[in-house]
Fold each of these.
Amino acid sequence: MCYNVFMAGGLIESFSGIRGIYGQELTGDLAYKYGMVYHHIFHKPGAILVVAGDSRKSTSVLKKYFIRSFQDCGAKKIFDLGVVPIQVAELAIIKFKAQGGVYISASHNEPEFNGWKLLKQDGALFYPRQVDRLIRAVHQAGANNFKSANNRQIATVIDKHQQAIQAYIRFISVSLGKQAMAKIKQANFKIIFDPNGGAAISVIKLFCQALNIQAKIVNSRLGQFGRKVEPNVESLGYLSAKLNDDYLFAAGFDCDADRVEFVLPAQSNFAKEMGVVLNGNYVLALACDARLAGTKNQIVVTNDVTSYLVRDVIKKYQAKIKEVEVGEMVVVKAMGKYQSVIGGEGSNGGIIVSPIKCRDGLMSIALILKMLAIHGQSLSEILAEYPKYYSSHNKVVCQSDKAIDARQRLIDYFKNKGYKIRTTGGITGGAKALLDINTYTWWRQSKTEPGVFRIYCESDDKNKVDELARETIQIFNKL
């Protein structure tokens, strides 16, 4: 099934949320309209809803518009969580028995951007079909659609900031278990945190207190961004020089703290070979290794471009991988179907731990610390024991109307060569050609970057990766 991505100027409306430059296409009036349509479609008067967001200056303004829209629709109570990570907001909806809510953020986009994600009763984002319905209704709605509820009472707005954070810290403690918590506290780990003025700041101190972490926090003033918002090699590379023998690693977050990147000491053997910023597939493998300890026969849901490293690591727990199309909510939906305790997308370093329905950067750190504490090893020592996989990530230009044909032609080419073919997500989803059990080439039209076609290759043999990437790109160009 193909769902629309609506674009008007700099405004993007899609299954992953609404975002744009605040004050241009993205305005308070648009937020109010979305709040009204969301409530009319998915809720009845008397609903209990949550509002929260990241640390951008425009977040507090947009939040007022959403609160007013919910009040005008007849909501009974509105729990205001203030600035918290998105995973804290999702958990709060469950813990406080709310019927849904909104999280205001543009995630990894720069500070002039903002946006929002509307949430369901289980804390999750809406599935693509539901988002498609919502966006279309917003586009079709006129002024007469926005009438206040009859005989309404103004909903009470209740501050739940501290209670939400405390509930999240308890969730981490319970997820780790008493034995792991005790060992982590005894280890007295030292970590550098770079929340970059984002929502993680609201949680880091309590998180570190709970786990007895000695923390050095940089860029720690809420709403003040000392680097590019997106955490990656370019924005976080400077942290490697700040690490010495005392610090395990540095952790850099995006603005809503669902995403974290790990920076290793440059002098470590692993960093010398694989780079100072830990690949997201290793993060997911470590997290699964920690979370699955003591379990058997679990199903771990990943997208179809997650490294086979994760498959190899979880075999000792008799766990199996279920591959689905790229997309956080696709993974979340499948996790519910298979009752998975953990899943994620190694291609972006995102881990998802039930019952939270989004990526969780702080939980990633907690699970990696569990691995270190239980095994009494350094991060580099554990990573050195994992299988090594090499990858090649490429973007090529492809007109949207040509992408489906290009996808099929690549399938036909590799099928004729005798490769096994796997597909996900229908005619616009991913396609993978397997050379052997550890080597594949994968391709898909981007659903977030118009005109981009992605080609990824992976193998435990670097030469195979380079050859397969070169071949796939050459065949694509001939098409």
Amino acid sequence: MLCPVCGAYSVGQIGRRRYYCGECYHEWVETEGKFKVFRISSDGHLVRTGVLADKKPVPVFAAKTKEAL
């Protein structure tokens, strides 16, 4: 599985349908064909950053590169 935030391969499963990326340090839950994405705050709590509607990873750095062109 690829990270839906950065597209990295360093993804680990930490629960049922719950994943963690070791590159961008985001967690996400897969529900009903969508990803609910969370970041880990400085005090260790999860802060929801958004919902991705598709299961296709969209690397943030690639999107920025295309906009720059």
Amino acid sequence: MIFESRVIRILLVEDDEGDAKLLRRSFAQVKSFRTEILHATRLKTALRELVEEDFDVVLLDLSLPDGDGFEVIDRVKQVDPQVPIVVLTGLNDENSALEAVKRGAHEYLVKGQISSSFLPKVVRYAIESSRHTRELEHTKIELKQEVESQTTALREAHARALRSERLAAVGQMVTGLAHESRNAMQRIQASVNRLRRRARDNKELCAIGEDIDVALDDLRHLYDTVREYATPLHLVKVPSNLCELWSDAISKVESVNTTSHIETVDRSPTKDPMPVVVDTHAVQQVFRNIIENAVQACSDEAVQFFLYLESVILYGRSYLSLIIQDSGPGLGDEEAKHIFEPFFTTKSKGTGLGLAISRRIVEEHGGHLDLPSEDMLSCEQRELLSLSGLKIRILFPLAQVGDG
């Protein structure tokens, strides 16, 4: 208990020396706990002491040379809202007592009616009551945060379930459509081949045949991409290092885009990131989508990526947060609203499914993928990631003992 373990510090605010002596004498007779009393005869002095030191309770006279009435309570609460207050006054009035409690006092005592044994009990009760109130408020905040976290998790789980149902339906439809269309595309391809053979010397017809070939390839690619988006994911997760996966993805993109020059600048506070349990192939696909989008947005220019990796606690869970910023032109507000929607694209070519697939992969890992707003970033992150390029944040659950 607090009373047996240490000295109870009392701030006595009383301008009458006689009353102050009587109060000191009351506490001197207490055997159950020890006290240290600091006496202030002015409100100004008392407020300064509250700023500079910690007290367990304030014994407060409402009639002071530099403060009078209930404003005295208000001024003490402004300086230290948590400290319990026991009012000492010569006014025996029930309405005044109710008003004092309403202003934040724990007890209202009338001078001359306080026994030497009663006051220490009141002080003890005020301290205990204040402590329990703070603990309850703290518990209330924790419960509210837990409820909000669980509610968010349930909403996300429900949304994922709905998306899975829709994707399953889309997958069945696309599979059927691709099957039915395959014969038609084969006939088109056969006709183009015959046209090319017969019109070998006709450059105009040969060019038309090449255009049809490109259109057929685009259609096949669209079918494959939509099928990939709709097909259930089967993840094979192992403990992995995100920085190594990022480097591997860079190498694969550079092997295809031989004219691209890609540079990575790691601005993470730690160079030894904690492992995450992920499907390496799937995560590299997420990284390649991000890298390829930036390369295309920067045209022929060199591309820089800035990484900021740190462990965070969000939604009541520990994550490894990776913020990726490129040196490209960024997105407008309206484009940013739709960037993860299926079939939305800012490019002249593309299905608009790359980032939608990437978000789905991250969410299947139990993580999150979003565009962080400025108020979601720390001061250090805003300083280190100050370019106008696109910022993407990926959250992966941190590896737990036994994962893998």
Amino acid sequence: MTLIDDSAALAAFCKALARVDYVALDTEFMRESTFWPQLCLVQLAGPEKAVAIDSLAPGIDLQPLFDLMANRRVLKVMHGGRQDMEIFHHLSGELPNPVVDTQVAAMVAGFGDQVGYETLIARLTGQGVDKASRFTDWSLRPLSKHQLDYALGDVIHLREAYEKLRDRIEAAGRTDWVAEEMAVFENPATYRLDPPNAWRRLKPRTNDRRQLAVLQAIAAWREDEAATRDLPRNRIVRDEALLEIAAHPPKSAADLGRIRGVSRGFAEGRLAATLLTAVERGLSLPLDEAPEPPPRPVVARGVGPLTDLFKVLLNLRCEEWDVAKKLVASSDDLQAIAGDDEAEVPALAGWRREMFGADALALKHGRLALAANGKQVVLVTVEGGIASVPAPSAARPEGGNGAGEGDGRARRKRRRRRRRGANGNEGPATGVADESSAESVPEEMV
């Protein structure tokens, strides 16, 4: 039996799987014309058997499947499963738990950033994956044998790949690392709608709080309407039209119809009235309650070069530990650490701090240094730390007037000395104020 399309068979199969250690899980769904994913097929594989569950079969009761997903004694294994999690949360109100996402686990085990399913299966099992039915319409019935074979292949291969990946992670002592990452997957807050913050997805380029208040109101309106009507957001109103409405708030249907991207039919329809109410809500919101403009990062002097050093350190540490860089720290995280020892970023907590964050802080404060040793970059412990070194005079405008007048005189004086040296009147300028200070730093230090 490879296809289950009735409630009794589903209940019996899920009851049998409730006694196993783990199941491999995948789904096929459609989302092109809906807000919520339309679940079309669920693939499950236990240690001995794999089946496809027709979630669209007339009268089928999926509750035994939901109960299995919530059974904490059975681990659910998936690959790139965030949308699968969202589907179950929407349909049952609960999330599969506990879970392991092999895409994340592979990053912990050294397979690179967000390794694809086909690549992971090939590297762990040596098997090729048939992706010929990737773009099939899974809502159409009946399903062909080829479609079912394709769908079941995903969980059959995943079962073998997971076991090998699990062994590698356990041997490396990184099971807790994966569990820490899965905590986000298993948190219901990750999948809840958040209409008041939907405006942030639009990335507005304005500091006008009144405009942001209108955008917040109409973006929340669209989120609610799309979810209620089960239509894609842009089927309600397109992103660019929302931004235009926020910038030029309409007071009437006629005004709304003149907004670029808003059709006359929409402006005169029933939905437009609720949109105009949302606009008015944003316009009447007290300004001190309006959203703050998204902070724009200001890079302090010296943070850029330090961030570059952190990137070298991150490359070094991730190569040594065989972990994907993307899992450890982003460029924004590195910049945040450069500016603040207490930055609230993942790289300064948990296992990331152990493998990278602590060394990044030590590098920042001169207790560690990066050095070249032949073709390799190595970390060097610095005894007593590095004393602060004043910036070159050319980098410090004198007199506080920003004109750099003193620096200009110094540069002209140095150019005159160099010209005299070239004419044989004076030794060449070295550009080093104190040669002994230059000798104190090894040549290979970076």
